Amino acid sequence: MSSPFQHPGCCSVSRRTFLSDFGMGFTGLALGAMLADDGIVRASESQSWSPPDGRAQFVPRTKSVIWIFLSGGYSHLETFDPKPALNTYAGKTFDQTPFENPVNSPLHEKRFRSVAAQEVNVRDVYPTIYPMQVGWKQHGESGIEVTDWWPHLSNYVDDLCFVRNMWTTDNDHAAENQIHTGRHRLDEVQPSVGAWAHYGLGTLNENLPKFVVLGGPTRTDTRQSIDSYYLGPQHAGVPIELDPTNPLPFGRRQSSQSAEEQRSEFEFINELNELSAVEYPQDQELRARIRAYELAFRMQSAVPEAVDLTQETAATADLYGLEDDATKLAGQRLLAARRLVERGVRFVQVYPSTYGVWDSHQKLKENHTRLCATVDRPVAGLIHDLKQRGLMDDVTVVFCTEFGRTPGLELRNGGTDGRDHHPNGFTIWMAGAGIKKGHVHGETDELGYHALGEGHYVTDLHATVLHLLGLDNRRLEIPGRKRLEIDHGRPIHEIMT
Predict the structure, then answer these.
(1) How confident is the model at residue 292 (pLDDT cuts 50, 70, 90)?
(2) Phi and psi (nearest 5°) for 398?
(3) Is 108 helix (H, G, I), strand (E, B) or coil?
(4) 166 phi/psi in degrees, rounded to 5
(5) Which helix (H) or strand (E) holds 457?
(6) Contact of 165 with 452, CB cutoff 8 Å
(7) Per-residue pLDDT at 18 exceeds 50
């Protein structure tokens, strides 16, 4: 049987190709959700394999995820993993301390992967210990140590769970993609964690995308962080602007067209599609396209309403710091994230800061003092807001960055006051549904260099998030796309309730 998209005298275009191209426009966003729900447009077919049906594979512990990413690599040492030994041995080399030189540890060779040849690489091996640039203290009943740059968030440590033994392998900013996809830049690209969540689960709100991105991707070369690759474009993150008058590219009705005129246009297209459906009753892709037009029309009102922050009270605006220029950007994005999960969006990826700003090779104290102040109040506000609305049982929050910073002083370019990239050990935290409260899991060594024990590669974080959503990412693997063992990761059961 010929395809309805193949016409005599014209180029032949398969339905699959048409729908893939079609998916790049606004209506394609809606189409993607419909195709995912229908379980079509897969990389390959198999008699023994069936795509996800939109239902969790086991009892989920959370409904939605807010994934907060700070681009550039915040210092774990000056945030959530303070190390007194850095002050005790400041100015000394690793060999002049009573501790094993971490550069000589087998963990360094095992986990570190530089694009440059190892013999010319100097990054992350600086031998002179740089002291902490801020004080710290214990907070809450749990007594968890947090530095003084987080005065608001530290009030909520009893709601948070810190994972202090994360590690990755890329020592440059391609690690921003790696923490979202699990792959080093020298390897084949994989779908992002948000795309896997989209691929595996059905929608909670048919009027909104399942995977929304706020503030990103930060650059064209970080598109991988929200992309879906071989899962199909329908599962990629949908960037949304916080402008209620035009939140989606190509998503606003033309000013010369009334809502009724547009509705009539959609109905006419629907009638034409229905005629084709009579001729091709088994064509599920066509049926999905019909439904996509209907969804696209509904999204035009649902998305602007979801990001209209003027509906919030003055008290809520103050909670997120919307009236302060320093915290306004992060506050708006995090408040919008709360509104989106409240309305049923499955996965919201938030960039509260611009690209690379946490990358403090120099002037670490100056940079981190300012940057922590831009996100501390909004993030604390999000936790408070989720609690007061009873959403901590439905939403899981992830707070992360691409890597930590070196315990040694960065010496490149005559550096005197900064730290370089450090993939060998860093800290993230989680909170909300399915996560232990006031808990610290794992540790780095006395100098904050290596994640001790097995540690957790970034895909362990992916596996944990997907597990909380009721998904086993090993069962999401599709024919023809065999993944490496490290791609799957292991859920961190020790931090789950």
Answers:
(1) low
(2) -120, 130
(3) helix
(4) -80, 150
(5) strand 456-457
(6) yes
(7) no
Report the C-alpha gap between 48 and 337 in whole angstroms: 38
Percentage of residues of the chain with pLDDT beyond 90:
68
CA-nearest of 238, 231, 242 to 207 is 238
Q: Residue 331 is encoded by which pair of tokens?
A: 């506050």
What 8-state DSSP symbol labels residue 410? P
Strands, DSSP E only, in 60-188?
A: 64-70, 136-139, 144-147, 160-167
Amino acid at 393: D
**What tokens does 103 get?**
């550069």
- 467-478 pLDDT, tens digit per residue, is 999 999 999 988
- pLDDT value of residue 72: 97
Which range, 250-254, 261-265, 276-280, 360-364, is most confident? 360-364
Q: Do the Cβ atoms of 321 and 378 come closer than 8 Å?
A: yes
Kind of pairing, strands 426-432 and 160-167?
antiparallel
In this predicted model, what pLDDT tens digit does every residue of 189-198 receive, in sequence order? 999 999 999 9
Beta carbons of 108 and 408 less than 8 angstroms apart:
no
What is the Cα–Cα distance from 359 to 375, expressed in whole angstroms?
A: 15
Contacts of 108 (CB under 8 A, 6+ apart): 102, 424, 450
Within a 10 A sphere around the Cβ of 328, how many other Cβ atoms?
Answer: 16
Q: What's the CATH code, domain 64-242+313-495?
A: 3.40.720
Domain boundaries, the chain: 1-41+259-306, 64-242+313-495
Q: How confident is the model at residue 254 (pLDDT cuts 50, 70, 90)?
A: low
Position 3 confidence tier, pLDDT thresholds 50, 70, 90: very low
Burial of 407 (0-12, 13-18, 19+ CB in 10 A): buried
- Amino acid, res. 342: E
Cα Rg of the chain, angstroms: 24
Q: What is the DSSP letter of 253?
A: P
Burial class (CB in 10 A: 0-12, 13-18, 19+), 280: middle
Cβ–Cβ under 8 Å, residues 214 and 250: no
Task: Scan for tokens 């791609």, then name that residue.
Answer: 487
Asked if residues 77 and 405 have their Cβ atoms less than 8 Å apart, the reply is: yes
Q: What is the mean pLDDT of the chain?
A: 87
Q: 221: which residues sit within 8 A by CB, 6+ positions away?
A: none
pLDDT at 44 over 70: no
Strand partners, 20: none
162: exposed, middle or buried (C-beta count within 10 Å: 0-12, 13-18, 19+)? Answer: buried
